[in-house]
Specification:
The complex is a heterodimer of chains A (about 250) and B (about 325). Chain A is an all-alpha fold and about 250 residues long. Chain A is built from 9 helices and no strands. Chain A is globular. Chain A has a single domain, classed as MetI-like fold. The longest helix of chain B has 17 residues. Chain B is globular and about 65 Å long. Chain B is an alpha/beta fold and about 325 residues long. Chain B has 13 helices and 12 strands. Chain B folds into 2 domains: about 220 residues, P-loop containing nucleotide triphosphate hydrolases (Rossmann fold, 3-Layer(aba) Sandwich), CATH 3.40.50; about 100 residues, no CATH class. Classes of the chains: A mainly alpha (about 250), B alpha/beta (about 325). Chains A and B meet through α6 and α7 of A and α2 and α4 of B.
């Protein structure tokens, strides 16, 4: 019965009241969600842009030293635990070298420079695993596409290798890569739970962790709901991107 | 007279995990101006690889062009590096390629027009707009119905035959001297095959190009080509004019090949005769004739001696066989009747 009350509340935009903070959950999440989204977007940008680039370079120079190096780094990257990386980052860049602040979050609209400096380490830490996966996926997608007949056709037309890769291969490879981007967003949320805790960032991830520890089930429920909704939206976006990239998906 | 295109002693090997495969092992052929030739043989005989090797379009590794010369316009194309500007200028510009599978050989995410205009922009330095109207013209020429409406369609929206027409338009867009069609009709059904060959013939005549048709169907190309090269296990085993090959075939493989193709003038009771045995495994090939295990005419000399080189058999006819099959064949024919 309680569940129906809760469902009814959601339909009216009411996520309930936190047991611990004595505040509306929607207000709690409303304050923290932009933080997580900011962190997530920066991480996503890092992992997607670098990952695809590294993957392509690796595939095109297949078998070279560079390819082997990138593949090695990617394999290491997938295996690194995010929280360990965060702690190491804090130790070296924060405490030893003093280059970057070790914790906290400031809105970029308030103080852009401080915000960026604070965000660099957490965003990079959060990006490492998706970046490594992105690199591996891009490399294998690209290798898959390069073997195709139409790439041979493109070469037979006398196109420069650059045009063959950028015009003919990349768009086809992206169709395969985009699937992973969708999945990455989901894993970024779980990663943000760790990173926000390590760097003491007031985002949804840390809210969730604290709620779990203080048995604040109303907040836990709401956080899970919001994250699930966001993941669903991202999946919709990737499906739309398919249609845009692959004319075979467009059916009029 | 110098030939338009001459390939001398081409060898292309593939280094596979299982061992060395001599896909093309000393192939020579030539093509004259405005000539149509056929390169015929079964799957894996090296006919496609020999064509791709000319423009260094085989993947390296595992492939390697070991030796040979490809003489075209007073240059040896094998002297150029794989993606050198000189070689790229010839690919698509002077020598056009049509591939076997029109489904997979066209890029699925680019419109057909874009795939034609990029060649025009590259080789003829055309402006985007001029290239587009030229592409439309080409699509009309190869017989795409309603070309103006369909020029912005993607390959998957066309049927197999229409896609191959797009391929033809693309390969011919820069008015190349040579057009190489690698099994152009294998992926389409029989009624379309003839149409496509007609289109190709018409186009090379219009564009004053020469054409190489690579195929496994000897009967199909007979009407269109002037000369034929028959390949087996990476070598040319017989070559000559259509008349010489059909009227006076000498090599046991050619004889077998023609017996295994149905003919309209055959009576119903006559059965097709397949060539016995399997194509050779091109790894660790014995030094003697590769057709030996399947050859019904073999003699002791074939076992002892190395694979014979092509020897003249009158006119433009060349054959690589120790046995003078002609005589035996006639004897058999008479014995049967």
């Amino acid at each position: 019965m309680q569940y129906y009350y809760w469902l009814g509340g959601i339909c009216r935009g009411n996520l309930g009241r936190s047991l611990v903070y004595k505040e509306d959950v929607s207000a709690l999440i409303g304050k923290r969600l932009p933080v997580t989204v900011h962190l997530g977007l920066v991480s996503l940008f890092i992992s997607v842009s670098l990952g695809i680039t590294a993957g392509i370079v690796s595939a095109v120079t297949r078998g070279s030293f560079l390819d082997q190096l990138i593949t090695l780094l990617a394999n290491v990257g997938v295996a690194i635990p995010t929280f360990w990386l965060g702690i190491m980052g804090i130790y070296f860049f924060g405490l030893k070298l003093g280059w970057l602040p070790i914790w906290g979050y400031t809105s970029p609209f308030q103080n852009f420079w401080l915000s960026t400096r604070q965000l660099v380490m957490p965003a990079v830490c959060l990006a490492v695993v998706p970046l490594a996966m992105m690199t591996r996926q891009s490399r294998s997608s690209m290798l898959e596409v390069i073997r195709q007949d139409y790439i041979r056709t493109a070469r037979s037309k006398g196109l420069k290798e650059r045009a063959v890769i950028m015009r003919h291969a990349l768009k086809n490879a992206l169709i395969l890569i985009i699937t992973l981007i969708g999945l990455q967003v989901a894993s970024l949320f779980s990663g943000s739970v760790l990173v926000e805790t390590v760097f003491n960032i007031p985002g949804v991830g840390r809210l969730l962790v604290n709620a779990v520890f203080s048995k604040d089930f109303v907040v836990v429920q709401a956080c899970v709901l919001v994250v699930a909704a966001l993941v669903a939206v991202v999946n919709l976006a990737t499906d739309i991107a398919y249609g845009w990239l692959d004319p075979r998906m467009r059916q009029g | 007279m110098a030939h338009l295109l001459e390939v001398k002693n081409l060898r292309t090997y593939f280094h596979t995990e299982a061992g060395l495969v001599k896909a093309v092992d000393g192939v020579s052929f030539h093509l004259d101006e405005r000539e149509i030739i056929g390169v015929v043989g079964e799957s894996g005989c090296g006919k496609s690889v020999s064509q791709l090797s000319m423009l260094q379009l085989i993947p390296t590794p595992p492939g390697e062009i070991v030796s040979g010369e490809v003489l075209f316009e007073e240059a040896n194309l094998l002297d150029y590096r794989q993606n050198s500007p000189q070689l790229r200028a010839i690919r698509g510009g002077k020598i056009g390629f049509i591939f076997q599978e029109p489904m997979t050989s066209l890029n699925p995410v680019l419109t057909v027009t874009r795939q034609i205009t990029e060649v025009l922009e590259l080789h003829l330095k055309m402006e985007k707009h001029a290239a587009q109207s030229r592409a439309l013209e080409l699509l009309k020429l190869v017989g795409i119905p309603d070309a103006a409406r369909r020029m912005n369609d993607y390959p998957h929206q066309f049927s197999g035959g229409m896609r191959q027409r797009v391929m033809i338009a693309m390969a011919l867009s820069c008015n190349p001297k040579v057009l190489i069609a690698d099994e152009p009709t294998t992926a389409v059904d029989v009624t379309i095959q003839a149409q496509l060959l007609e289109v190709m013939k018409e186009m090379v005549e219009r564009f004053r190009s020469s054409l190489v048709i690579v195929t496994h169907n000897l009967g199909l190309v007979a009407r269109y080509v002037q000369r034929i090269y028959v390949m087996y296990a990476g070598r040319v085993v017989e070559s000559g004019t259509v008349k010489e090959i059909f009227g006076d075939r000498r090599h046991p493989y050619t004889i077998g090949l023609l017996k295994s193709v149905p003919r309209l003038d055959q009576t119903k009771s006559e059965r097709l005769v397949p060539i016995e045995g399997l194509p050779p495994n091109q790894m660790n090939m014995p030094p003697n004739c590769a057709f030996l295990p399947r050859c019904p005419y073999r003699i002791a000399r074939c076992e002892r001696e190395a694979w014979p080189i092509l020897r003249p058999a009158g006119g433009k006819h060349f054959v690589a066989c120790h046995v003078d099959v002609d005589v035996k064949e006639r004897a058999r024919e008479t014995a049967r009747s």
